[in-house]
Design brief:
The protein is of the alpha/beta class. Strands 1, 4, 5, 6, 7 and 8 form a six-stranded mixed β-sheet that branches. A two-stranded parallel sheet has the order 2-3. The C terminus is likely disordered.
């Protein structure tokens, strides 16, 4: 069965083929998770729950939303596994960021009836090139029908910077999701919508048919490069500090020291396996 590609899988290869090799070829379990990834997951799950209730006309109070976030955080936070790269910050710093994200989103969008939810955390799969077996998958945070009839693909971001409009207009992830769902909504205009929750900011972009076709071609070329790769070289960068395989990768600077040799009076024990 050909592999299912995703935006994350493609980006992983572009950022560092070695990380791609560990994660997708060798399928090694992650040794840790960054606090930023942990924060994003906790915020996403609470926003999904909030929208589920709102779509049923049962909008919870802001206090309940924040309380649910805190409970989920405390239940899932494991300091031995969640890695904080920026040592000047502690876990409470990130907990506070999450609460501010939810507070701003709630106040801006209450009572959450400006549009129609078509899907939450919606899994999508589609053939990019059926002949070559290039298949993609993804998860749309929220699929929406706006009041003007346009279909919107919404994505929630907890990052602490907002990309330029030029970068958003070239963003691959949400455009791939548009390719995935466009057949379900023919003749409908699409909008790609990002919520930068830390800032309470929204950004919007659209794609032409020509841009989508060029995207399809570019991604097929990238998948071809991935499938021809044999060496998977490491590509050291500032991102190494956030890599879940940093303790294993010789290029990251975080590899574990070799086990110390036994004292001279005690010969090393041989494994019987």
């Amino acid at each position: 069965m050909p592999p299912l590609y995703s935006h994350s899988r493609l980006s992983c290869f572009e950022n560092c083929p070695k990380q791609f090799h560990y994660r997708y070829v060798l399928k090694l379990p992650a040794e840790s998770e960054s606090i930023e990834a942990f924060l994003g997951k906790r915020v996403h799950e609470v926003l999904e729950r909030l929208q589920q209730f709102a779509d049923r006309g049962l909008v919870p109070s802001l206090a309940k939303v924040v309380s649910r976030f805190r409970v989920n955080w405390e239940e899932r936070y494991d300091p031995s596994r969640v890695r904080i790269v920026r040592q000047e910050n502690d876990d409470k710093f990130y907990l506070d960021i999450g609460e501010r994200c939810l507070d701003r989103f709630y106040r801006q969008h209450y009572p959450f009836d400006a549009d129609e939810t078509l899907g939450l955390e919606q899994h999508v799969r589609f053939d990019l090139d059926a002949e070559r077996g290039y298949r993609l998958r993804g998860i749309i945070d929220r699929l929406v029908r706006a009041r003007d009839g346009a279909i919107e693909i919404h994505d929630y971001k907890t990052s602490q910077r907002i990309p330029s409009q030029k970068r958003l207009d070239a963003d691959r992830q949400l455009a791939l999701y548009q390719l995935a769902v466009a057949r379900e909504y023919p003749e409908r205009p699409f909008r790609l919508v990002w919520h930068y929750l830390v800032f309470g900011a929204t950004r919007v972009s659209t794609r032409s048919a020509e841009q989508l076709e060029r995207l399809r071609s570019d991604v097929m070329d990238l998948i071809g490069r991935i499938e021809r790769e044999e060496e998977y070289p490491a590509r050291p960068s500032p991102l190494c500090g956030w890599c879940e395989y940093g303790e294993r990768c010789p290029a990251s600077g975080r590899t574990r020291a070799a086990s110390p040799a036994p004292p001279p009076s005690q010969p090393a024990q041989r494994s019987l396996l």
